[in-house]
Amino acid sequence: MKIFIAAALVASGTVAFAQSSSEAIAQYRAMLADGNPAELWETKGEALWKEPRGPKKASLQRCDLGQGAGVVKSAFTQMPRFFTDTDRVQDLESRLLTCMQELQGFDAAEIAKTPFGKGEQVTLESLVAWIASESRGLQFSLPQAHPKEKDMYEAGKRVFFFRSGPYDFSCASCHGQEGKRIRMQELPNLTTQKGATAAFGAWPAYRVSNGELWTLQRRMADCFRQQRFPYPGFTSDATVALGTYLGVTARGGASIAPSLAR
Amino acid sequence: MTTHLHPRSMTWLAVCAIAAVAGCATPAAAPAPDYDAMAQTMLRNSFRPQGQATLERLEQDPLQRACSAETPPAADVIRRLEARELASVKPPSDGRYLGDWREGEKLAQNGRGMTWSDPAGVANGGNCYNCHELSKAEIAYGTLGPSLHQYGKLRGVADPSSAVAAPIVQYTWGKLYNAKAYNACSVMPRFGEAHVLTVKQMQDLMALLLDPASPVNK
After folding, report:
1. Is B21 within 8 Å of chain A by CB?
2. Which residues in chain B are closer than 8 Å to A241, comparing Cβ atoms?
3. Which residues have C-beta within 8 Å of that of residue A132, sequence separation ≥ 6?
4. What are A63-81's pLDDT values in tens digits?
């Protein structure tokens, strides 16, 4: 499989300059439609969901992702959402931390502090990949009935337009206009349903540039890095608020996650 | 970040208390939430310093604050902001506006600097190709900014040191030094004002844009 992917990348790489990068990515996707490497994470994630783990030797099969205990289907396309037990709006990663702590006895704060790609963060990547895959093709329909969900949307929109740092960048500096790009990388306009679906709806994704599976949390952290901002805490309020803003903006769009990204 | 948190629950409690004193059992409708304050609080609580990216970077100056809305500020606000930014522009300390376009081209290619993963103390890149077309030979250019191909040539700059070229030379310096002096909410960083680039680096970028020998003007 590895060899096939490498060959596909070389082939697509040569045409990347001849056509737009989004076409090249679409071509990767078509070529790998039956074999997106993200499947490896999905398979692992399903097994991890069912496996008794942690100090309490329990599985996550009673975890409530918003559709009732243990229900995974269509959970991804309706998050971030408000949860009564924690009294806050949570995205998928944040909610999984709650379940890992409550059901399995892990220390959620410890996992949140762990760098991406290490320790239990690797578990989260796989879980997110599998849970997202269970909503593939479904439309984003984030709830906004609870006041705290509305708060997160409104605050998230403000975080999106918040300009700061030595370069005066906000999310909107790169993602607020139609048809722009940085170097050859096309930039989705995240203020539109189409753009938000293409971006928010594509993560988690297998990144062909580094062979890793990145969750939305990781993707956003790297955006903030390039914005020259300080480090956003894993599942911190600002990141969940941004996710809510993007998810609500993407409403009606179909999820393709886990997808392939550059 | 001077906005203070007014948790809605606190306000609500106050309303309830007043209502109770007035003898009515149910509180009046809750006041509209202050989403700006909410976002500020979230930003303050969500980030931690990493490498050279300190929390001070979340403290907005008046221009950043004015340009953080979904829509641009009113015309009079824009005029005031631009005047303030223009006053910050300092001409090159040695009086030379143009350096070496070859060094400028290298800087234009370089997008590194000031992220938490960049080592502190290393010279920053100019990030130019991230957003602009410049030399025709570089096809991997971004489009967030306008094309700068033939920048000097299109503006009739045959001799950048001539008196006739002075206005465009000085304007270009100002634009590099502080892009907000000419367009308050421009996406372009304030390279001189924010100490992203040194005077020497800006001189080299000036040469890339204005030197007739530069590939930009071919």
Report:
1. no
2. 39, 42
3. A76, A92, A204, A255, A257, A258
4. 999 999 999 999 999 999 9
